[in-house]
Structure formats: structure tokens, C-alpha cells
Specification:
Blueprint (H helix, E strand, L loop, with lengths): L19 H44 L15 H13 L3 E8 L2 E2 L5 E2 L3 E8 L5 E4 L1 H4 L2 E7 L5 E10 L4 E6 L22 E6 L7 E15 L5 E8 L11 E3 L5 E8 L10 E5 H14 L5 E2 L2 E3 L2 H6 L5 E6 L4 H4 L13 E6 L2 E2 L3 H11 L4 E8 L2 E8 L1 E2 L7
Antiparallel strand pairs: 1-4, 1-6, 2-3, 4-5, 5-8, 6-7, 7-8, 9-10, 9-12, 10-11, 11-14, 12-13, 13-14, 15-22, 16-17, 17-18, 18-19, 18-20, 20-21
Amino acid sequence: MTSLPPHAPPPPPRPPGLDPLASQQAQVRRTQRTDRLLRIAIVWLLVLATLWVAQPYLSALWFSATGPRTVTARGELAPAEKATVDLFKQVSPSVVHVFAQGSQRVSPFAVQQEAPVQSGSGVIWDAAGHVVTNNHVIQNASQLGVRLASGEFVTARVVGTAPNYDLAVLQLERPHTPLRPIAIGSSEDLQVGQATFAIGNPYGLEQTLTTGIVSALRRRLPTAAAHEVRGVIQTDAAINPGNSGGPLLDSAGRLIGINTAIISGSGASAGIGFAIPVDAVNRVVTALITNGSVPVPGIGIVAARETETAQLGIDGVVILRTLPDSPAAQAGLEGATDDGYVRDVITGANGSDIHSMSDLAAALEEAGIGRDVKLTVERDGRARTVTVKVTDISQRCRT
């Protein structure tokens, strides 16, 4: 029996990747897919670029407010805001704008020139029409006027001035607007950090409110020659030219000081302002209204300027001369001789060292008019104690 030869095995299948036709078709599909994606990306980029260019125009078209906006309800003011608003409403009618014009000047060509008008602020002190301001605001003025918070302009006259405190009292002439005197507080119990409020007319801008705090207390502020106001209040409330004479207030709306000076290299507020304490204002203004002047404690001497004393190398107050029948003359104090020889130098008062006229003025003010003060006086290098009675020298304008 004859056996048949076995069948040959079928050839192995060709891998797909080795099929030229299939590989070519796959490559075409990939290329088509890449081109499609690229076209889609380009279309989207064109769409985004178009939107980016058109965005301002579309925003203006769709979102522009073509009519009045709807007012958003605000709600209640914060308690601190409400308190400040109420304070201004309460006190601002008591603050006035003071105008002072000096005497007319004659030019070298005999042409009269209008004197400049200086202005400041002031407060209504009482219902009789007395206004308190700074002395430097009305100094050398021939005409005075006051504009009330109502807008009424009233002429005024000087009742009295106290240059040593930079204070002055004016009298309004027949105002028609009802007057609202300012509420008086106390400066004795002030504390650093308390809120302060200043109302005035800086640069002529009427009824301006600024806020701050009590920055420091018991400062010493030079005013007239040989005098310093003690207990001055320092504040960072913005005080500018035109605020002088206006009120410094506490958070209750009470007067705690009269704004009088700033420290600034440019003349504008630098956050360092000073106010005369209301306790001193109350005392001085009462004397001005009653008597037209404020008693000035002194002993009746004419002293050398501090620059001259420093040039001589002397520490103390050099007496140039004593006034006739003054307490200093009666106590045997002597001034310099005609040839400039220094006789008596005051170096102490009631146990405190005296270096300048402001020190002596402060010691005499502390002693009080009518009381004795023990002065340490040096003559020819020898010190002695002299008892001198303090008197009122306001009419003599000496110490």
C-alpha cells in the first residue's frame, strides 16, 4: 500500500506592518487626522483672535450703562463715622472765619496801596458776640471782619489781646444770625492717644474738618518775647495756615484748645500742630473780656537778649536796667553800667535754675502776682539770695 506524502504546512501570515499597501493606507490616515486637527486648531485660533480684537467693542455694546445706575443701598453709617458727622454738625456753627486788614501803605511815589488781608479762624465764646482767635491773626489790623457759619459777614472790634498767650478777643457788631457759643472742655485730664478734631479755614477753605489724636502733652510754645505758654497740646490733626484761632475738640465736641502753630519746613501741615490748652484760654479770655488785658507777672527789669548773653558766655538773665520804683529796684537789683559792665545776673528762682528769660517768666507766673519770689543773683562772681515781690507789669511790657 502506497503512502501519500504529507501536505506542506501553510506559509506563516505576513505581519501587518510589512504589508506595503496597509502601511501606506495607515500613513495616509494619520496624515489626514493631523491635517484635520491642525485645521481645527487654526480655526479656533482665528476665532479666539477675532474675539480678542472684538472684545472691547462687544463689551461696550453689551455692558455699557446707557441710563442712570441703580443706587446700591448703603445701610447705616459706622458708629465712628456717625459720631464724627454729629460732632461737625454740632460744633461747626460755633466756628467763624476771621479777616484782618492792615493800614493802607503809601508807596515811594505817594500812591496809596491796599494793605493785604490776612485771615484765620475763631470760635464764638458767648451769646454776647465775643469771638476768640489768635493774636497773630489780627495783629496790626485796622479793620476786622468775621464771616459766620451761616454766611453772614459782620464787622468786629478788638476787646483785648494777650500776646504772651497768642490770644485775642473780638466783639461782633450787631450780628443778625443767632449765635451758638462753643462748648468748653478741660485740658487738665487729657491723655495721649485721645481723638482730636480741628475745624477751621485752612487756605481760606471754610468749615474744614480734620481729625487726629493727642500726640503729646505739656509742650512749651514760645509766643511773645520772653514768654512761653506751658501745657501746650500737640496733635497730628492736619493744621494749616488759616486754621490759626480755630478750635481743637475732643470726641464729645468740647473745646480743649485753640490751634495756634505748626512745625513745618514747607509751611504746610507735617502732622505736628500745637494748641493753647483750654484751661489757659478760659482764664485769659475771662480777663480780656472783663479788663481788656491779662495781668503779666514780673519784677520790673529790662533784660539782655539771649543771643547777647550767650556771646558773653553767661548762663542766666543779665539785667540791663531796672524800672523806677519797680520791685527789682526796691530790692536793690542793678542793671549794667553805661560802659557795658554787667552787674547783676539772675541764675535761680525759688530753688530752680534760671537759664533764660522764658525760665524766669515761667517761675514768676508760677509764684503768682502779689507773692514773693526768692531770686539767686550773681554779682562780681558772688551769689546771693534776694527776695522780690511779683507784680503786674502788663502796662509796662517788661519783666
